[in-house]
Design brief:
17 strands; alpha+beta; 2 domains; 495 residues; five-stranded mixed beta sheet; Threonyl-tRNA Synthetase, Chain A, domain 2
Length: 495
């Protein structure tokens, strides 16, 4: 959305138009067009064309705008409330594109619509061919409702009425309740020859009509209504003499109101209207309270935002690519410098080695013969490693379970006969007992494999057949049964 301080503020009324330059623009007075004719509008359009990059924000103060406040069901989710607001807005103003729905602090919603064929749409069409970004419309009654907080702070806790005299459109009434707008009325300008008393009496009658109309919405006769009016000084005496249905009244000239609102009016005499005050008030805000857009302007704005986002993304990717390229280039340069330094070190070492080789050439051959002699001595002095280191480990594995009955060490291989100590396994055994003997030898095999690291351990003979079809026969039936002895083979693993 457009920042009001950076934009031209174009106040469009039913009778005339006023153009205020952006903040920081050279000290030029606001430009006025006395009517909406093309001839009178030409100077304003020419001034806009001189600053094509500055956006234009329309501040609408016309009769052709309608306000409707409705209560909404409570306890709606955010998305459900947005859907309901959109549906009710379309129902309230089906024939216009310039419309908006505003949430209220009390749970109600304010629906606003601007008629399709009005002076606002006329100026939107005139601004479209210009290069200045345009299309945003703000509504003067909503934007200026906040002025009451500084002009009449007591009105923030109840009912307040702000009365503004505008040359562009007439006399605008803005009624608020607890700081939120609830009603607005525009009295067209009276004839130029009308006396101050006539104007004051007309305004008093309109204020009385406003109060009578709002009695149905809670503004009873006993409810206090606080008035703040910005009127030209010639009207003050006549207006003060009127009997108004208000609890308090404060009268300001345009310059007094600007001072109270902390606004700076251009260095020019007081005008018989206060059109500049609401324009300066809007320009001092961070963002407008209302922003209305027609579908074509909304589509153009969305396209511009997408294009701008694309440019930002492209710029970011370009900067990122350049940063990566610079980082990679720096890394390559550093690697090249390190490689050059290493090449210099290698060259220096090769030079030193060559010099040492020439110097020690005579000692090289005797040293070679000495190295060979040392190697032969080492080989011939090696002794064959025996099973001494294995015996304690094997004894720990056997424990009370078994004992060694025979042992043979040959070429790094230990053949070991082990017998189970359990007396139950001596004699002729049935199949179950024989299986138990085999299982115990298998357990000893597993323990030896875990204990004797670097050795291969296996059983080459069991005391009984271990395969399903294996049978041990003995023709001599009177021979003694075999003892529970198994033969283990322990061999050192190849390195």
């Amino acid at each position: 959305m457009t920042h009001p301080a950076n934009a031209f503020i174009l106040m469009v009324g039913d009778d005339s138009v006023l153009l205020l330059p952006p903040v920081g623009k050279e000290k030029t007075a606001a430009l006025a067009a006395p009517s909406h004719d093309e001839t009178d509008a030409a100077p304003l359009l020419a001034a806009l064309a001189k600053t094509p990059k500055a956006p234009v924000l329309i501040l609408a103060d016309i009769v052709a705008q309608d306000y409707k406040r409705e209560s909404l069901p409570p306890l709606l989710s955010f998305f459900d409330r947005k859907k309901l607001l959109a549906r009710k807005l379309a129902q309230a103003f089906p024939k216009t594109d310039l419309k908006i729905a505003l949430d209220g602090a009390d749970g109600s919603a304010l629906f606003i619509g601007v008629e399709e064929k009005s002076n606002v749409t006329l100026w939107l069409d005139r601004l479209a061919p210009l290069r200045n970004p345009s299309g945003e419309v703000s509504l003067l009654p909503v934007e200026c409702a906040g002025m009451l907080a500084k002009l009449a702070p007591v009105a923030m806790q109840g009912w307040g009425l702000l009365l503004l005299a505008h040359k562009t459109g007439g006399y605008r009434q803005i009624v608020t309740k607890n700081g939120e707008i609830v009603f607005t009325r525009l009295t067209p300008p009276l004839p130029a020859l009308a006396s101050p008393d006539t104007i004051a009496e007309t305004l008093a009658q309109d204020i009385q009509a406003t109060r009578a109309y709002l009695s149905r919405t809670g503004l009873t006769e006993d409810a206090p209504l606080h008035l703040a009016a910005i009127l030209p000084p010639p009207l003050h005496q006549s207006f003060t003499a009127q009997n108004l249905p208000v609890s308090s009244r404060l009268l300001f000239s345009p310059r007094e109101a600007a001072a109270r609102l902390e606004l700076t009016l251009p260095p020019q005499p007081d005008e018989p209207a206060c059109d500049l005050v609401p324009m300066l008030w809007l320009q001092a805000q961070t963002v407008a309270q209302t922003t209305l857009l027609r579908p074509q302007e909304r589509a153009q704005r969305l396209t511009a935002l997408i294009r701008q986002a694309g440019l930002i993304a492209a710029s970011f990717m370009t900067v990122l690519a350049l940063s990566v390229a610079a980082s990679e280039g720096l890394s390559l340069w550093q690697n090249d410098q390190e490689a050059a330094a290493l090449r210099q070190d290698v060259a220096a070492l090769e030079s030193e080695f060559e010099a040492a080789r020439h110097t020690l050439a005579r000692e090289a051959e005797p040293l070679n013969r000495l190295r060979k002699a040392i190697e032969r001595r080492r080989l011939f002095s090696l002794r064959n490693e025996g099973p001494e280191s294995l015996i304690p480990l094997i004894d720990a594995v056997m424990g009370p379970e078994a004992r060694a009955v025979a042992m043979e060490w040959k070429d790094g291989t230990l053949t070991l006969d082990l017998r189970l100590k359990d007396e139950r396994f001596i004699g002729r055994l049935d199949v179950v007992a024989r299986q138990e003997v085999t299982r115990r030898f298998d357990d000893l095999l597993l323990l030896m494999r875990e204990t004797l690291k670097g050795y291969t351990v296996s059983i080459t003979r069991y005391p009984y057949p271990t395969l399903p079809n294996e049978v041990l026969t003995n023709k001599n039936q009177q021979a003694k049964p075999p003892l529970p002895i198994a033969t283990f083979l322990i061999r050192k693993e190849a390195p």
